[in-house]
């Protein structure tokens, strides 16, 4: 998605060869117009996938996932990273290890919000190692639903998540697939 890639080049910053800072428009301050266009682009790419629901992982996936859901005319479900004490019945959980944060958390879904008839499109801001995406997929499939696809706003193609998801047979779309970050330069895989 050209507009997104130009925005990353203009306002993003490669902190080092592994971490891309995009907090001025994606995951701290949010540009709603860009999010709207991201939602339209995901909706276009997954139009034929029979999507009945969008799922995302809190917190930074919520903005692009909401816009995608709005565009596709379906509901959006937030997979939680912690359990509220008032949530006890009918919850599904799986452990996810975050390499970035070097800690594990319990990804949580109230099963009533995803049913066996659903075809779920998973949307997230970053795809890195794929741990969060595979955790989300485990929960959604445990609820009996099928995965219609996985959409990442930014995928770091030099980390294993993108390849692992495709090898596992999931349809993955990355709007900005980053091939390499070197000496402050950001290079995209599809340029
Ligand atoms: P994985 O799920 O793909 O295996 O990745 P990992 O656990 O390593 O990533 C965990 C968190 O780090 C995620 O946010 C993800 O969005 C973020 N992240 C990964 N790579 C980058 C990067 O290059 N730049 C930035 N800015 N973030 C990155 P999170 O902890 O779930 O936080 P949030 O969604 O609550 O903001």
TL;DR of this structure?
A 6-stranded mixed beta sheet has the order 4-3-7-8-9-10, sandwiched between helices. Strands 1-2 form a two-stranded antiparallel ribbon. Strands 5-6 form a two-stranded antiparallel sheet. It has helices at residues 2-11, 32-45, 62-72, 131-142, 161-167; strands spanning 13-14, 20-21, 53-57, 75-79, 91-98, 103-110, 119-127, 146-156, 172-182, 185-188.
Sketch the major β-sheet. Answer: 6 strands, mixed
Encode the helix/strand succession as letters: HEEHEHEEEEHEHEE
Count of DSSP helices? 5
User: Low-confidence segments, ≥5 residues, pLDDT <50?
Assistant: none
**SS class:** alpha/beta
Q: Tell me, briefly, the overall form.
A: globular
- Strand line-up of the largest beta sheet: 4-3-7-8-9-10
Strand % is 25-35%
The helix fraction, in percent, is 25-40%
Gap from first CA to last CA? 11 Å
Could you give the count of β-strands?
Answer: 10
Nearest-integer average pLDDT: 95
Cα Rg: 16 Å
| List of distinct ligands in this structure | guanosine-5',3'-tetraphosphate
Protein described:
The protein is α/β, with parallel strands linked by helices. Helix content is 28%, strand content 34%. The chain has helices at residues 2-11, 32-45, 62-72, 131-142, 161-167; strands at 13-14, 20-21, 53-57, 75-79, 91-98, 103-110, 119-127, 146-156, 172-182, 185-188. The relative contact order is 0.17. The model has no long low-confidence stretch (mean pLDDT 95). Bound molecules: guanosine-5',3'-tetraphosphate (G4P). Guanosine-5',3'-tetraphosphate (G4P) binds next to strand 2, strand 7 and helix 4.
């Amino acid at each position: 998605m050209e507009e997104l890639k130009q925005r990353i080049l203009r306002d993003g910053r490669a902190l080092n060869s592994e971490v891309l800072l995009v907090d001025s428009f994606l995951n701290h301050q949010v540009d709603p117009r860009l999010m709207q266009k991201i939602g339209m682009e995901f909706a276009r790419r997954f139009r034929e996938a029979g999507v009945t629901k969008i799922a995302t992982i809190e917190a930074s996936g919520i903005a692009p996932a909401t816009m995608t859901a709005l565009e596709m005319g379906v509901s959006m479900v937030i997979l939680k990273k912690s359990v509220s004490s008032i949530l006890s019945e009918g919850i599904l959980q799986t452990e996810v290890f975050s390499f970035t944060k070097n800690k594990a958390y319990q990804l949580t879904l109230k099963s009533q919000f995803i049913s066996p008839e659903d075809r779920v499109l998973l949307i997230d801001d970053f795809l890195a190692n794929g741990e969060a995406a595979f955790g989300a997929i485990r929960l959604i499939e445990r609820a009996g639903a099928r995965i219609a696809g996985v959409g990442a706003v930014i995928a770091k193609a030099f980390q294993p998540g993108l390849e692992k998801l495709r090898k596992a047979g999931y349809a993955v779309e990355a709007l900005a697939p980053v091939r390499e970050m070197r000496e402050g330069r950001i290079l995209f895989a599809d340029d």
